[in-house]
Design goal:
Elements (H helix, E strand, L loop, with lengths): L48 H12 L9 H17 L9
Length: 95
């Protein structure tokens, strides 16, 4: 009947408060004519840091960040060799 998610957390609701008389949204040029597309465009507040953070994160995301870097592999290899040197390359203690 009731589905209980033990490991899945609830997603927090977004809270974007703008004071009543705050002029955060840019209305643009008042003498400019509106097109059909600009009416449906989402305009975010200038104090909406979550949206700014999301946009910056999307712009900085690259394919290189998803793969294991060459530098990380070298560091892991050096650490393994250092541990083996301390153990005098004796792997029989693991068996």
């Amino acid at each position: 009947m009731f589905k209980i998610n033990l490991f899945k957390l609830r997603k927090n609701r977004r809270y974007n408060y703008t004071p009543r008389y705050y002029k955060g949204k840019d209305s643009g040029n008042i003498y400019e004519f509106d097109s059909k597309f600009t009416k449906y465009r989402e305009i975010y507040n200038s104090n909406d840091f979550r949206h700014q953070w999301d946009q910056a994160r999307v712009q900085m995301r690259t394919r290189k960040n998803h793969s294991i870097s060459f530098r990380l592999l070298i560091i892991i290899l050096i650490l393994i060799l250092t541990c083996l040197y301390i153990l005098d390359f004796d792997l029989s203690i693991f068996m």
